[in-house]
Amino acid sequence: MHILYFSRDYSTHDHRFLSSLARTDHRVSYLRLERRGHQLEDRPLPPEIEQVAWKGGQSPATLGHGLRLLADLTRVINRIQPELILAGPIQRSAFLVALSGFMPLVSMSWGYDLIHDAPRSTFWRRATRYTLKRSAALVGDSDVIRQLAIHYGMPADHIVTFPWGVDIQHFNIPSSESTDKDTFTLLSTRGWEPIYGVDVIAQAFVRAARQLAENHGPQLRLVMLGNGSQAKLLHQIFQKGGVTDNVSFPGQVGHTDLPCYYHMADLYLSASHSDGTSISLLEALACGRPALVSDIPGNREWITPGETGWLFPDGDVDLLTQAILDAVARRDQLVKMGRRARWLAELRANWDKNFCELEKAFQIALHH
Fold it and tell me: With CB atoms 3.0 to 4.6 Å apart as the test, which of 26, 30, 160, 240 could cross-link to 361 if both were Cys?
């Protein structure tokens, strides 16, 4: 079958989907909606995948580009004649396909499209309903996405839910654990944008680091991967709190080197205000790292407090501070919790196994 894979950009998730699709019997073409300001994935497109040249994919896409892109998308579809289109996020790539009238369309939710974007305005809600009404099937990564899709009109029996998962061979437990009792290292891997609550992490880290220093506890360190619009704010928080020397900023780290950062950490942190199934969280679990994450529906599907990590109320700096201090006090339990985390990743977050579920969505769409 000839499948057109149409995504917003070229990210780590796109690389994984396209690499796995390349190993199937399907012929796969790839269309990129836009190219944003920073590189999201440093690995090349799999050679088996045909990248389609069109008027999009060279710069950020806005609503003002919609009519021009829709016309060219229609031209591309007529030229390459796909038998099925797999497209997401909902209100961007999938919406354009729905407007083109092509069928069958398998829409793919990226989490934020239903959790964050759809409620933003009447236009976004209408675009969501319009797209789902014209989708033969929907792929989502968590129960929260499933329930939201049903709310916006998608029939439950046309939804295929599976965690996108991780490469559990690449993201594996370290060969040996650190025995350094004088330092406790926290790891944040999310982008420096408001939706990910990195300012909450920064404020809580300052408070926890000060308390440990005052009580002659272990030195608290924070490794913050990535970058983003809140860089200035984060540096101000650390400088004002006097903990700049305790924080490392490695920047954007490639897929190959990511496991090393999980291995050097004692605890993974995420204060995200919105998530489906967080791939960063799954990477941490696969690397045998307990997680301290915001108490939101997507995270509750993975974290059982005291077993694979802890939850704290979304946005609560005080309780995140206390949770960090509690984790430091319980550091002798972390290796055991990390083993449970790894077991959970092997059971539910194995990408090679979970990817096979995508074929169910194709079959639903073809027989719609």
Answer: 160
* CATH no. of 2-165+352-366: 3.40.50.2000
Q: Which of 326, 334, 348 is nearest to 263 (CA)?
A: 334
Q: Tokens 């031209």 map to which residue? A: 75
Identify the residue whose tokens are 């005291």. 306
- Dihedral (C-alpha) 343, 344, 347, 348: value to the nearest 10 degrees? -160
HSE on the CB side for 197, CA within 13 Å? 22
List pLDDT tens digits, range 78-120: 999 999 999 999 999 999 999 999 999 999 999 999 998 999 8
- For the whole model, what pTM was predicted? 0.89
Please answer whether residues 109 and 90 qualify as being in contact, where contact means their C-beta atoms are separated by less than 8 angstroms.
Answer: yes
Give me the count of residues in the chain.
368
Q: Is the preceding peptide bond at 47 cis, omega within 30 degrees of 0? A: no
Angle at 47 between CA 44 and CA 53, to 5 degrees: 80
